[in-house]
Amino acid sequence: MGRIRRLMSKRVVIGVLVAGLVAVGAGVVWFQPWKLWVDETVREALPAVTDSPATGAAARTLASGELISHEHATSGSVRILRLADGTRVLRLENLDTSNGPDLRVLVADAPVKKGTAGWRVFDDGAHVSLGKLKGNKGDQNYVLPAGLDLDRYTSVSIWCDRFDVSFGAAALSRA
C-alpha cells in the first residue's frame, strides 16, 4: 500500500510540474516580456510624391498633436499631412514609448484623457486601425484611408490590442 501511495504521489508531482511548465510557457508567449528590453527604432522619411505635376510641393499639415503617456511613458508628436498627390499620411515623429505585444496605431473619436481614465477608451467608439506599430521609437508614416473624416476622428492612440490598453495618445488639433 505504501508503495502505491509513493507511486501516485510521484505521478501527481510530475503532473503538477508539467502543468506548471506549460503555464509558464504560455505566459511567456502571451506577455512577450523580452520586448521590455528590446527597442525597435524606425527612421522613415516623409513620403515623396514622384508622379505628380506638383512634385516638390511641400506636404501640408492638416492636424497635429502631442502624445501623452497612458499605460507606458510615451512622448512624441503626431501630424496628419496632405501630400502633393492628395494622399493623407499620419506621421509619428520622435516617438518614444515602450515596446509591447501587438501594438497598433489607432485613429479614434474618443477624447484624450490624462491618467488611467484614458487607458481603455480608444476602442469603445468609432476607431480605425492603421496597422501594426512599426517601431516603438523614431519617425514613421501610416497612410490614412481615403474617406477618413478628420472632423470625426480626433485622436490617435498607440494601442496594445493584446491587452486593450493605450500606451499613449494625442488629441488632434486642426491646422
UniProtKB/TrEMBL annotation:
Task: Tell me which InterPro entries the record gives.
Answer: DM13_domain
Q: Which UniProt keywords apply?
A: Membrane, Transmembrane, Transmembrane helix
* Presence of keyword Transmembrane helix: yes
Instruction: Please give the start and end residues of each transmembrane region.
Output: 12-31
Pfam families named among the record's database cross-references: DM13 (PF10517)
Positions of the DM13 domain: 60-173
The reply on keyword Transmembrane helix is yes
On the tree of life, the source organism's domain of life is Bacteria
Name it.
DM13 domain-containing protein
Q: Mind giving the lineage of the organism this protein is from?
A: Bacteria, Bacillati, Actinomycetota, Actinomycetes, Kitasatosporales
